[in-house]
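In response to the reviewer comment on reproducibility (Comment 2.3), we provide here a single inverse folding case reported in full, input and output, so that an independent group could reproduce the run without further information from us. The structure tokens appear first.
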């Protein structure tokens, strides 16, 4: 899974960078804007954002402001703080996931299309529900790992 996500993220970054390069060259150097390029770049950009967030959840490397860790002195306290953080993340994430699911159902029902190229926007809209689902799976996985470590007395 690690290799797949590296290749997927790299491919999406290259697609977005190439699209932006083409946009700059055609619009500002050649003075010939490519119609619909922004629309087509929406899809890989949204998927890149979501897969980047999924990857951070998988690796447990989200940016955090762990101010409380300054005053906590033992490994058990750090583990309990991590558990509390994961539980709060899971609650908020599941709440957002319910909203994303409602929005995905709406997007499926309405089936909007992009204004210039008439590409169904559902394919970018669904990225949110897929991304949040996978992030919640990884959050629950890390939560279970923290609880297991605390129960075993393996606080790191």
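Designed residues, in position order:
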């Amino acid at each position: 899974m690690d290799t797949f996500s590296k290749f997927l993220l790299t491919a999406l970054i290259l697609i977005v960078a190439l699209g932006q390069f083409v946009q700059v060259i055609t619009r500002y150097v050649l003075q010939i804007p490519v119609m619909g390029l922004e629309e087509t770049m929406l899809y890989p950009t949204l998927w890149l954002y979501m897969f980047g967030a999924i990857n951070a959840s998988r690796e447990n490397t989200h940016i955090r402001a762990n101010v409380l860790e300054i005053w906590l002195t033992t490994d058990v306290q750090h583990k309990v703080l991590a558990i509390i953080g994961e539980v709060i993340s899971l609650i908020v994430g599941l709440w957002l996931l319910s909203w994303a699911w409602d929005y995905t159902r709406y997007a499926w029902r309405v089936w909007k299309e992009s204004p210039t190229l008439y590409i169904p926007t559902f394919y970018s809209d669904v990225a949110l529900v897929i991304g949040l689902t996978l992030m919640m799976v990884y959050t629950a996985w890390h939560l279970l790992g923290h609880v297991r470590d605390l129960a075993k007395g393996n606080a790191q």
